[in-house]
Amino acid sequence: MRRGVTATMVVAGILLMIIGYFGAAPWGADTVANSDPRITLAPTLFVLGVIVVFSAAIVYELLPDRERR
Amino acid sequence: MATTARGRPALPQGIGRVTPGWWAFFAATLIVLAFGIVAIIRELTAGMVATGMRDVGTAGGATWGLYISMVVYFIGVSFAGITVAALIRIFDIERLRPIARMAELLTIVSLILGAFAILVDLGQPLRGITNLFGFARPQSPFFGTFSLVIAGYLFASIVYLYLGGRRDAALMAKHPGRLQRFHRWWAAGYKDTEAERRRHYQTSFWLALGIIPLLIVAHSTLGFVFGLQVGRPGWYGTLQAPAFVALAGVSGVGHIIVLAAIIRRLLGAQRRITMEAFSWLGRFLMVLLAVYLYFMVVELLTLLYATPEVEKRLSDALLTGTYAPIYWGSVAALVLPMIALMWQALARRWNVGILVASGVLVNLAAIGKRYLVVVPSQTHGTLLPYEVGSYSPSWVEYGVVLGLFALGALLVGLFIKSFPVLPLEAEEEVSVDA
User: Fold this and answer.
1) Lower Cβ count inside 10 Å, N or C end of chain B?
2) In this complex, is the C-beta atom of A1 within 8 Å of any C-beta atom belonging to chain B?
3) Of B146, B156, B199, the CB nearest to A60
């Protein structure tokens, strides 16, 4: 359970970073219109991804043990 | 056992006890911080014209000045704190364990100061923040600095400090008092069981392993902010990123030495923070200094050899012109500590006073070098045929920077008075348990 949640968070965080990275404005945008992000708030998704990955460490340590629940 | 006025056993390391000296310290930092806030208000109401910054070329100034120099400096200082903490964990360096928490604290505080320094550099900070989350490009070194340094690095450091402090927080939470609720929150149900210890060991090891590459990337990215600008002589170059990392290490380790010496003196912790720890830090600083001095000489030789016109104008300004006092002052403040550290390493005799002086000098040099990276390329490095420009910070900029230093000192002081800055050892645990 603990490992599962932690691993899920790490994977989800990395996915968010990938989406944020490729959802932002494209490389070599030739017009101003093209320099807008392809996904709304793409940079926020990237930052959120970084935070989710490191939050996994807190979850791994703080999640109660099964026998204690 | 020491007790409080209410007859309760006193918390170790003077936590929760604010002596007149500490009140004076807090008052002094608050006064300087208030001056910094007045300066920020002046900047926000009058606009950026209240600073000494002007447009490059057309207005003969620099758009990046003291603030950006301090951003680079503060983020540089943060480098060594978490590096030392991570190295202690990965390589199990027992003699440095007492300084791990203060190193982590230094990283967090300097990153917060770095973030504030970025914000004050924006004429409209709020507009800057909202646009950053909506339109920034993760591919850009500017955004990389924000996302990796602030979001990733700061958050990772907070997680590292938080998880590492849970055991001490749990012990402190047993003690009734004003801080009990805070310590209980920090402990978050920690019981110090074998399973919890094992889990913490695993987490901190993997966090340490993840943080080291992250911080190398983060600091290199900050170097790329300058190093990738093709049209700016003095900035464009492959050495910017590694030189940034090396100088970041120099300033950060210098800071740790100074902070460790102050805390050692304040808490009478000569037995905890041993001379062995200082000698390790001194050697580490010496190696980093040697690497940085090598980069500096290589950079200088490249700048002077078969120099194109604009580069020559820049190197003249640095070596013999407007910026020469800062340049040679910084070089002296790097070379002197190098000689002092080598002498101590060869004699195998380390002196805390000399180490502290070295730490202070390398930090003054780091501020000088950061200023010289940021400013001269704008005033003397324009490729278009503009006149040579100039930049001098206004009182507003000095006030803000002083306010930032005061904020840093205040945060460190508040932490020392509310949480064990040195990990609790057996006898302190007993006094807390009593």
Assistant:
1) N
2) no
3) B199
Angle CA(B88)–CA(B91)–CA(B96) in degrees, nearest 5?
Answer: 30
Of B147, B156, B203, the CB nearest to A61: B203
pLDDT score at B434: 46
**Helix, strand, or coil here: B3?**
strand
Residue A69 pLDDT level (bands cut at 50, 70, 90): very low
ipTM of the complex model: 0.86
B89 at A interface, C-beta within 8 A: no
| Among the listed residues B9, B23, B428, the one whose alpha carbon sits nearest the alpha carbon of residue B180 | B9
Residue B244: pLDDT band by 50, 70, 90 thresholds? confident
Q: Is B425 exposed, middle or buried (0-12, 13-18, 19+ CB in 10 A)?
A: middle
Domain ranges of chain B: 18-388+400-433
Question: Residue B94 and residue B260: Cα distance in Å, rounded?
Answer: 16
Nearest by CB to A43, from B138, B195, B210: name it.
Answer: B138
Q: Which of A1, A13, A21, A60 is nearest to B137 (CA)?
A: A21
**Six token digits for residue B423:** 């990990």
Per CB-CB distance under 8 Å, the chain A contacts of B166 are 61
**Domain locations in chain A?**
2-25+39-62
Q: How far is CA B286 from the centre of its chain?
A: 18
Which residues lie below 8 Å from residue B388, measured CB to CB, with a gap of 6+?
B60, B313, B317, B379, B380
| CATH number of the domain located at residue range(s) B18-388+400-433 in this protein | 1.20.1630.10
Q: Which residues contact B289 (CB under 8 A, 6 or more apart)?
A: B250, B334, B337, B338, B341, B362
Best of A40, A61, A63 to substitute, by most chain B Cβ atoms within 10 angstroms, is A61
> Is B408 in contact with B9 (CB distance < 8 Å)?
no
Question: What residues contact B82, with CB distance under 8 A and at least 6 apart?
Answer: B103, B104, B107, B153, B156, B157, B160, B211, B215
The contacts of residue B417 (CB under 8 Å, 6+ apart) are B14, B15, B16, B17, B18, B22
pLDDT in tens, B124-140: 888 888 888 888 877 77
CA B186 to each of CA B61, B164, B169, B170, B413: distance values in angstroms, whole numbers, following the listed order: 48, 10, 6, 8, 18
Chain B hits for A19, CB-CB cut-off 8 Å, are: none
Buried b / exposed e across B15-45, counting CB within 10 Å, b at 16+?
A: bbeeeeeeeebbeebeebbebbeebbebbee
For residue B13, give the nearest of B434, B411, B431, B433 by alpha carbon: B431
Q: In the prediction, which pLDDT does B429 show? A: 60
Average pLDDT over residues B169-192: 90
